[in-house]
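Hi again,

Forgot to attach this to my earlier email, sorry! This is the prediction with guanosine-5'-diphosphate bound. I've pasted everything inline since the attachment limit keeps bouncing my files.
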Amino acid sequence: MKVHNAEIVISAVSPKQYPETDLPEIALAGRSNVGKSSFINTLIQRKNLARTSSKPGKTQTLNFYLIEDTLHFVDVPGYGYAKVSKSERAKWGQMIETYLTQREQLRAVVSLVDLRHAPSQEDIQMYQFLKYYDLPVIVVATKADKIPRGKWNKHESVIKKALDFDKSDTFIIFSSVTKEGKEEAWQAIEQAIK
Ligand code: GDP
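Structure tokens for the complex follow:
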């Protein structure tokens, strides 16, 4: 998809605030700093619509972006901040759980992991949670430019094994620096919203 129009529609904390449309939605989840904002900005060809390197402690909201009047990207706040209090974490968990389990037009979840490392416990939990609810997942392994191409396969295998990756899901090796995987990511998203 060539994107010319992308705009933030709302930062929501509760279902009442979700946009009242039936446009298909693609959620994006990943631990803080994994490269989620960079992924979104690469796909929509913007330098900084989705904020990069969001700071801990900022309001934890679900950010809905309208893309070409045909779908919403729903940016789920990053997990894995040690500094966030237990009660904040519980609130965060509830907010995303409500969204992911109850939103009818949610078609797939882009789950971002870092290609360089084995998935964290939280990455694994997130993936298992999505599989439990039968949500199609597009695993995007970021920062591919930081390791040599010859090692990509090995890293992909490590990640798939740790996640207990479901063969019906899609796995994409991605870099916002080289744009590797951008077309593949769009293809997977377009397939999911068909
Ligand atoms: P977010 O917290 O998940 O939204 O992550 P950001 O998109 O803000 O990225 C976190 C940091 O990783 C920033 O310093 C980015 O410049 C860097 N980064 C993100 N994606 C890539 C990538 O594909 N390659 C490299 N080399 N750095 C990246």
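The chain has one domain: 6-193. The longest strand covers residues 106-114.

That should be everything now.

G.
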